[in-house]
Amino acid sequence: MKIEITDTAKKWFEDEVGVSNGTFVRFFGKYGGTSPIQQGFSLGIELVEPRNPLGSTEKEGVTYFVEDGDEWYFSGHDLKVDYDELKDEPIYEYL
């Protein structure tokens, strides 16, 4: 699984979540909300170290990852994280 974090998304995570060099950001499927790939679920984030990553990427010292136990949510999709300036929030694209 590939994960892409744009520079503007990285800045949002720094400013709003407080990530910095050495931080780990996990993306996972959670119950509730909406998603174009899983009805009744949405994407969550948490700051924890990886145990058994399905995919990961590192950007300026921050590791963004998905655990293999969350493969069901992504169902074969890669993840691109961008930033919506008007809504001031990340945009998650499933590729």
From TrEMBL:
SUPFAM superfamilies: HesB-like domain. InterPro entries: HesB-like_dom_sf (IPR035903), PdhI-like (IPR008326). Belongs to the HesB/IscA family. This is FeS cluster biogenesis domain-containing protein. It comes from Carnobacterium divergens DSM 20623.
